[in-house]
Specification:
This protein has 13 helices and 17 strands. It has 487 residues and is α+β, with helices and mostly antiparallel strands. The strands form four sheets. It has a five-stranded antiparallel β-sheet, with helices on both faces. A five-stranded antiparallel β-sheet has the order 7-6-10-9-8.
Length: 487
């Protein structure tokens, strides 16, 4: 990550309105922002040697994170849990903690990225509403007074129509009076893009399922859009069945999270741009040098023109591979494909090149058709790339084996060579932009292969031993034999 990108991330981390921290894998604070210090009731220096209550909190984070890692769930979504915490003053807080693992480029976990949000007020409100529900049936006036005193937005609806909004809600939506909202459908407030979420929650309630919490994008009366986070409970309002929603404005929090994501995107884009610049700069330097030689030469030199043409073709090759990598499935439609027939076509195509290098391609396959769902041209490109890699790894002849194994749900195709092999470090670096073990390679071929396999719902793995050979294994889901298929 370049310095300006790191500063962007660090700025968003430092100035976030919610508590954030980086926690080591053994459960100690590595870095935290001032919002977390304020939330936990300690200054920055005091958190360096945390109190027993903070250590308990860290221990809980460590236990939950380890459980999430064992279930392999945290690699996709952050893990959230609620934790009670006592301030140094003795006050009890209810904190929602979100944990996600930050890994290095090889997928090894480095530390936990944690976010701490004070949910005490929401939990108190929820508790108060549940405890007071039975008595509020006879005390509508007291109920409304309670709602008016809440700092969070409260909306009461019946059959999707707004019946009541408290003062905090009027301020949030920029309404001058309650009359502007009473009788309005919630579909007029919730943005059109979130109507499906609204309908799904209604259906879940009527089917007896738990409604749970929700985040909506809403349209305010002044044209502004905001994100609100909250929950809904069924109540009796004015003697009728209704729903009460308690919501908090999280627009600023969503903006900060987007800034963090954008910072990571900029980092990735910067690495890719640096690689492209490096790969194209070399041939351009050669072209520029030979152009100067041609200007100073008294006669034409075909050798110079040959080198210039070669370098221009290399630039064209790099650009074409980048275009394939960016949109690998734009112009193709997936259909059923006979995998064995496809491999036979690829083997026939590559046999000529193999013979020139004193190589043999030896398929070890079943006689029965194996059907998968995909795009035949792209799948051919995958196995052509793997066979080309195998050939380029073998300078002294030998055999390349294609093994096909299946089970009930998937097919496994292995391309095994007897070439120079790779070290563990080289295997880990595969898939990085512009990393290659070849003198004239770009490192984009394996990225394209990887993307195509992933777009077909599959996976690709590598096993290699230096000086003994390499095996690439593609695993892809099977389908039943179709009536119409691509062969």
């Amino acid at each position: 990550m370049r310095s300006n990108e790191f500063q962007s991330f660090d700025f968003a981390f430092t100035h976030a309105v919610i508590g954030m921290a980086l926690v080591s894998l053994d459960g100690t604070f590595l870095k935290w922002n001032s919002a977390l210090s304020n939330l936990l009731g300690y200054d920055h220096n005091e958190l360096i040697t945390p109190s027993p209550s903070v250590r308990t909190l860290l221990s809980q984070i460590h236990e939950i994170a380890e459980l999430g890692r064992s279930l392999s769930s945290m690699n996709i979504h952050p893990h959230r849990f609620q934790q009670n915490y006592y301030l140094p003053t003795g006050q009890l807080l209810s904190i929602e903690i979100s944990i996600s693992i930050v890994s290095d480029a090889n997928g090894a976990p480095l530390y936990y990225f944690t976010q701490f949000e004070n949910k005490t007020l929401i939990r108190q409100i929820e508790t108060q509403l549940q405890e007071a529900e039975s008595s509020l049936l006879e005390k509508d006036k007291s109920f409304l007074q309670l709602l008016e005193g809440l700092p969070l937005t409260v909306v009461v609806t019946a059959k999707g129509i707004i019946q009541y909004v408290n003062s905090a809600g009027l301020q949030l939506i920029h309404a001058e009076s309650l009359n502007q909202l009473v009788g309005t459908s919630t579909t007029n407030i919730v943005d059109l893009t979130n109507h499906a979420i609204l309908q799904e929650r209604r259906e879940r309630y009527y089917s007896g399922d738990t409604i749970g919490s929700v985040c909506y994008l809403i349209n305010c009366l002044n044209g502004q859009q905001k994100f609100v986070d909250g929950f809904t409970l069924p109540i009796i309002f004015n003697g009728n069945m209704a729903f009460i929603g308690i919501f908090k404005d999280v627009s600023q929090q969503m903006l900060e999270e987007e800034r963090l994501i954008q910072s990571e995107k900029l980092s990735t884009a910067g690495q890719l741009a640096a690689g492209i610049a490096h790969e194209i700069r070399n041939p351009l330097t050669a072209i520029n040098g030979f152009m100067k030689l041609l200007r100073s030469s008294e006669r034409m030199n075909d050798k110079y023109f040959f080198i210039i043409e070669s370098e221009l073709k290399r630039i064209e090759f790099i650009v074409n591979e980048l275009l394939v990598l960016s949109k690998p499935q734009t112009t193709h439609v997936s259909k059923p494909v006979d995998l064995l027939s496809l491999l036979e076509q690829v083997t026939t195509l590559m046999n000529g090149q193999a013979a020139l290098k004193n190589l043999q391609i030896l398929p070890v396959c079943t006689d029965h058709s194996i059907w998968i769902h995909g795009e035949a041209y792209q799948l051919k490109q995958v196995f052509i790339n793997l066979l080309k890699n195998a050939m380029e790894a073998m300078d002294s002849g030998g055999n390349i084996y294609i093994h096909v194994l299946t089970n009930e749900s998937e097919a496994r195709i292995s391309v095994q060579d007897e070439g120079c092999g790779m070290t563990e470090e080289q295997i880990k670096a595969l898939g990085k932009p512009f990393y290659t073990t070849k003198e004239t390679g770009t490192g984009l071929g394996f990225m394209i292969t990887q993307n195509i396999v992933h777009n077909h719902g599959g996976a690709i793995t590598v096993e290699s031993v230096p000086e003994q050979g390499t095996t690439f294994t593609v695993t892809i889901p099977k389908i039943l034999e179709p009536e119409e298929a691509v062969i």
